[in-house]
Amino acid sequence: MHPWYLDYSKLDESVRGLVYALNCTDLVETLSSCGGHPESRSWQEDTGAAYVLCRVLHPCRWAEVVSRLEVTSRSWDGVRFLTRGKREQWMVFQAKQGPADHVRQRLDTAISETTMLVGEYEAGEMNGVFQRHLDPDTADKKAISPLRGVQCAPRRK
Questions:
Q1: Rounded to 5°, angle at Cα 74 from 112 and 143
Q2: Where does 23-132 show beta strands of DSSP type E?
Q3: Per-residue model confidence as pLDDT tens digits over 111-130
C-alpha cells in the first residue's frame, strides 16, 4: 500500500511508525497489524505478540532485510522475532510473560529497532548489502544470497 493511502491514526500507536516505514519501501505492502496489548488481561494467554502482516513484493531483497532483523533480534531482551509465510508474511514480535509495563517496554524497543532498520533500507544505507548480491557488475546473470539461499535476479540500473 502506498504510504499516504492509509489512515495511520487508526493503527495501534506502537506499530504506526513501523507500518509507515514498511510501506515506504518497495519490498512489501502491509495488510494488517497489531501493536500488542499487554495491558489486556487475556493478551498474554491468547497471543503474547505484536505483528505486522505484509505482502512480499520483492522476496530476495526482503529476505536480506529479514536476515538482518533476525541478527538484530538476538539482542532483544524478552522478545522473539518470528516470520511466517512466504508471499504473505507475518512479522511477529513475541514477548515473554511479565508485568504489562515491562512487556510493553520490551515490545516497543523491538518494534523501534525494526523501524530503524527498515528506515535504513529506505534511506539507501543498506544498499551495500543488496548491491553485493544483486549488482550486475559484480555478479553473473544470477546471484545466490548466502544468508537465505534465495536466488536473485540482478537489479536493473
A1: 90
A2: 28-34, 49-56, 79-84, 88-95
A3: 999 999 998 887 666 555 44
